[in-house]
Amino acid sequence: MNSDLKGRHALVTGGGSGVGAAVARALAENGASVTVCGRRKEPLAVLADEYELIFAHPCDVTDEQSVSALYDTAQGERGQFDIVVANAGLAESMPAHRQSLALWNKIISVNLTGSFLTVQPALQHLRKQDYGRIIFISSIAGLKGYGYVSAYVSAKHGVVGLMRALAAEYAETGMTVNAVCPGYTDTEMLTQAIDTIREKTGMNADEAKSWLTGTNPQKRFIDPQEVADAVLYLCSEGARSYTGQTLALSGGETS
After folding, report:
1. Which residues are catalytic?
2. What is the DSSP string of the chain?
3. How confident is the model at residue 162 (pLDDT cuts 50, 70, 90)?
C-alpha cells in the first residue's frame, strides 16, 4: 500500500515485535518518522538499527510519568505526533472463577488504561490540526466473547468503547479515531497461547494450532503485515471520513 506519510511523526507502542514492529516498519517505509516504545530495550534497539526513520524509546504505558517523559523526549526531538498507534497489549488465560484480582488489574492496566494513557497527551494538539490519526489495536475479542480470557475480553471491549467515545467527541476536528480488531495473529503472543493450550490440554503444537485456526472461517492465522496494511489505510487521506469504526481482520469471524 502506498501512503505518503513524509513529514508525519508516528508513535507506536509495543513496537519491539509482532504487530507493533510490523506497523512501525510500514509507517517508516511510507515516509513517517516513527517513535517505537516498549518495556524491553533490546528489540526496540534492533528495530531502530534497521530503519533510519525509526527511533526507540523504552516506556511503560501503564505509568503516566513514563508516558509523559516519552512524549516530552520524542516530540522535543521530532515534533508533535500526527499518528498515535496504541498497540501494547497483554493476554493471559485463566478460568474466571480462579482469576485473581491482581491478574485482572494487570491485564486491564496494560490493555485499557495503557491505551488511554498512550493517546491522551496527543488529544490537545491533534484536535487543533487538519490531520490526526489515533488507531487502537484491539482484537476480535473486543467485539465478541471468549472463554478463559474474561479480563482480556473486557479490556479489549473497553478499548473499542474508548475509541467510539473519542471519535464522537472529536468528530468535528481533523482527527480520526478507529480500532483494528485482528483475530489470532502470528506473533509471540500467539506462540505463548499455543504453549498454554499444550500445557493445559495435552494437545501437541499442531493440534493446538488447528484448534485456534478453527475460529477463523479462512482457517488461518492473521499475518502482522495485514494489520500494518490496515493501519496504513487508516492513516491515508482517503480514510479521512472513516472514524469511530472497528476494522475486523478475522477471516469472516463474527459475533
Report:
1. 152
2. -----TT-EEEEETTTSHHHHHHHHHHHHTT-EEEEEES-HHHHHHHHHH-TTEEEEE--TT-HHHHHHHHHHHHHHH-S-SEEEE---------GGG--HHHHHHHHIIIIIHHHHHHHHHHHHHTTSS-EEEEEE--GGGTS--TT-HHHHHHHHHHHHHHHHHHHHTTTSSEEEEEEEESSBSSHHHHHHHHHHHHHH---HHHHHHHHHTTSTT-SPBPHHHHHHHHHHHHSGGGTT--S-EEEESTT---
3. very high
Task: Return the pLDDT at 6.
Answer: 96
Tens digit of each residue's pLDDT (9 = 90 or more) over 194-226? 667 667 677 777 776 776 777 778 888 889 999
Q: Give pTM, 2 decimals.
A: 0.92
Write down the residue that cell numbers 493446538 correspond to: 208
Q: What's the pLDDT band for 2 if we cut at 50, 70, 90?
A: low
